[in-house]
Design brief:
Blueprint lengths: L1 H46 L17 E4 L6 E5 L3 E2 L9 H11 L11 H12 L10 H8 L11 H17 L2 H9 L8 E2 L1 H9 L8 H9 L13 H17 L5 H8 L19 H13 L5 H6 L3 E4 L3 H18 L5 E7 L6 E5 L20 E2 L5 H10 L8 E3 L4 E3 L2 E3 L9 E3 H7 L2 H11 L1 H11 L7 H4 L9 E2 L1 H12 L3 E3 L4 E5 L5 E4 L7 E3 L3 H16 L15 E6 L5 E8 L2 E8 L13 H14 L19 E2 L4 E2 L1 H43 L1
Parallel strand pairs: 1-5, 3-4
Antiparallel strand pairs: 1-2, 5-15, 6-7, 6-20, 8-13, 9-12, 9-22, 10-11, 14-17, 15-16, 18-19, 19-20, 21-22
Helix pairs in contact: 2-8, 2-9, 4-5, 4-6, 8-9, 9-10, 13-21, 14-16, 14-17, 14-20, 15-20
Length: 693
């Protein structure tokens, strides 16, 4: 029985132990299950809001926007928040690739996105006191720089797990070379340079495929700490880091011992290139004008422009821009005054395209664009404004050749007293004649007759965009007392040159997104045009404006080769500004000369010669034949008489002349009668004197 009891007790114990073990296993299983379940749930939450890494757009790093001239190759500006210039694998030297692999990810071509061996190695190295290493692969770093850029400063396990997961997925989507290239085009190399091409240019003023072994090692060492390893700001740190990279390259058998010893003894050899702050690369006055339009006149955000990789094609004609600059510089040199500036705006009459802008002589010294008014507004254009009064008169049916105005000086019209230049009294002249000699008194009388408002509206119709103070200026509006930019004037006379069709000015013809899709298209001038004059009215204005160049105040614009030129001169009070607008069938331009500070008078009386120089050089450069303005019949003219303001049609002028002659005959007869009376009186007095003696 005792043995049976012992057996029973042993059986009970075995049962209890088995129950305990089973219970423990159950608890352990429950713990493992709950732990795994919790881990799965945690991972699920970590992965629930992953960025869309499957889309190519996820790796579309900020790209610079390029602004080009009309030749679609000359770069005018490069716009970006960060300096980047993506390149292909063929554009990167082998030494740079080897240096990057050696220091960042020696097993890059062996792992699948996460290098578990590398993580352990880095951990052991850091524990043993070696130079600090990270366990992230190039693929992980690329993920951190692009898809997870918003989490870059997050050092949690969550971010590392997310980073590793996406890296594993990317390795399935792209080849190793593709991943390496994307990394090299996006990594931060310090000093504002992102991507290897930008870094090579920033520190050595060369391309990525021109880097030496020492230079490659220097750049490869920067991404570990772009600020601390910046060779410009911290050359000692950069040198030490470069040598670590060279040692790693030697250890990984990328370079020989001799190559290592030579490179490690070399200096940094920096030749930095400074990045342009505003992104302007060439022709700054035109480019700054185009950029102002880009930012203000299109439905584009700042991110679109600075990160979107747009291609902006402008209307700048490089050859004409250079010719315009040379013509203005030649004029500036002839003035022998450092205070004088010459500005010019050129517009294609047939399209409204802005082909050239000279806003001053030195953009670095003054960014005020004297041609477009950026930073300073326009300038008084003087008698150039008479163009608008002339056209308004023609539109009103007034014949400029058959209608006459009183050009005597001085004159008081509508309470405004004025005089011609040097107070010359020209008598009665046709409107065309008065325009050619630029009679102030004649045109103030003319604008008073046809109405200041009509003249202002004509200016708007032709292309002036500046608000004109009609009420404040009154009849003096025709004398160009208000500020207008040369660009507005050039577009206005371009409307006359092309036969009466105004085009909205165009400086940006097309804009493409980074994929080459056209998102802005203003290349068709027909989409920007409006007829504001009849062909006959425009032709009549052209003919009158020709007189200015043929024999009037603008003869300096006449072309030696016989090319017809029409234009108008203008001078502000005290010669503080002189202006000329000129047109041919192939170009329209406005030139301004003066002292921007308004302190000094212009030492010459005309700038029409600038137009002649420009137009002649363009014709020679482009082998242009002589071109005539299109012929048209006269517009319909009406009988016109305003005797109160001394403006007469041909018929009334004939009557006026005959009446004047009759008045002069009568005055002469009266003069002779009085002379005779005085003679008779003297004779009588002489007789009395003799008799008294």
């Amino acid at each position: 029985m005792s043995s049976r009891a012992v057996k029973n007790r042993l059986g009970v114990k075995k049962g209890r132990v088995l129950g305990f073990v089973l219970g423990a296993l159950a608890l352990l299983g429950a713990f493992v299950f709950s732990t795994c379940l919790g881990f799965v749930l945690v991972l699920g939450s970590w992965f629930s809001d992953l960025p869309d890494y499957k889309s190519a757009e996820a790796f579309s790093t900020p790209q610079p926007t390029y602004v080009y001239a009309s030749d679609r190759s000359t770069v005018l500006a490069r716009l970006q928040l960060e300096y980047r210039e993506p390149v292909t694998m063929r554009d990167i030297g082998d030494s740079l690739i080897e240096a990057t692999l050696a220091i960042e990810d020696a097993r890059f071509y062996d792992h699948s996105g996460v290098d578990y061996f590398g993580v352990v190695r880095a951990l052991v190295n850091n524990i043993l006191g070696g130079s600090l290493e990270g366990g992230s692969t190039i693929t992980q770093q690329f993920v951190r720089n692009t898809v997870l850029a918003g989490e870059m400063d997050d050092i949690s396990v969550r971010r590392k797990v997310r980073e590793a997961y996406i890296a594993l997925q990317i390795e399935k989507m792209y080849s190793k070379d593709e991943i390496l290239l994307m990394y090299l085009n996006t990594v931060n190399y310090g000093s504002g340079a992102y991507g290897i091409q930008a870094a090579a240019n920033r520190y050595f003023s060369k391309s990525a495929d021109e880097l030496s072994l020492s230079e490659s090692a220097l750049l490869a060492g920067i991404p570990q700490s772009p600020t601390y390893n910046d060779p410009i700001q911290h050359p000692d740190n950069a040198l030490a880091r470069r040598n670590i990279v060279l040692k790693r390259m030697f250890d990984e058998h990328y370079i020989s011992e001799k190559e290592y010893n030579t490179a490690v003894k070399s200096s940094l050899g920096l030749r930095p290139t400074a990045f342009v702050g505003d992104g302007i690369v060439a022709y700054p006055y035109f480019t700054s004008y185009a950029l102002q339009l880009l930012y203000n006149d299109y439905d584009l955000s700042e991110d679109d422009i600075l990160k979107g990789g747009l291609k902006v094609y402008t209307t700048l004609d490089v050859r004409k821009q250079k010719i315009a600059e040379e013509a203005c510089e030649q004029k500036r040199n002839s003035l022998y005054s450092d205070s004088m500036e010459v500005a010019m705006a050129v517009v294609d009459p047939n399209t409204g395209n802005v082909e050239a802008i000279v806003g001053g002589s030195d953009y670095q010294r003054s960014e005020v664009n004297l041609a477009t008014g950026q930073g300073g507004g326009g300038r008084p254009c003087g008698s150039v404004f008479k163009v608008f009064t002339l056209v308004a008169a023609i539109k009103a049916g007034i014949d400029p050749n058959g209608t006459y105005v009183d050009c005597s000086s001085p004159a008081t019209v509508d309470g405004y007293t004025l005089e011609n230049y040097d107070n010359i009294s020209y008598g009665t002249r046709s409107i065309a004649n008065a325009f050619a000699i630029s009679s102030n008194t004649g045109f103030v009388r003319l604008i008073s007759s046809i109405g200041v408002h009509d003249v202002a509206q004509t200016a708007y119709d032709l292309g002036v965009t500046t608000d004109l103070d009609e009420e404040g200026a009154g009849a003096s509006l025709t004398l160009g007392v208000q500020n207008i930019t040369p660009l507005e004037l050039a577009n206005s006379v371009a409307t006359i040159a092309n036969g009466g069709v105004r085009h909205d000015l165009c400086a940006i013809s097309t804009i493409e997104d980074r994929s080459g899709n056209i998102i802005v298209d203003a290349s068709n001038p027909e989409d920007r045009e409006e007829r504001v004059l009849t062909v006959e009215q425009a032709h009549a204005a052209q003919e009158v404006m020709k007189g200015v160049v043929q024999w009037g105040t603008g003869v300096a614009a006449s072309m030696w080769n016989g090319q017809p030129v029409a234009g108008k001169t203008g001078t502000s009070e005290d010669y503080k500004d002189i202006t000329f607008v000129g047109i041919t069938p192939f170009t329209a331009a406005s030139i301004w000369v003066g002292d921007p500070s308004n302190a000094t008078s212009v030492p010459v009386g005309t700038c029409a010669d600038v137009f002649r120089s420009y137009a002649a050089d363009v014709m020679e450069a482009e082998s242009l034949p002589i071109q005539e303005f299109d012929f048209a019949d006269d517009p319909t003219y009406f009988y016109y008489e305003d005797s109160e303001r001394h403006v007469y049609s041909q018929g009334s002028y004939d009557s006026m002349v005959e009446a004047e002659r009759q008045r002069q005959r009568e005055a002469e007869a009266e003069r002779k009668r009085r002379q005779q009376e005085q003679k008779n009186s003297s004779s009588k007095n002489s007789t009395r004197g003799s008799s008294s003696r």
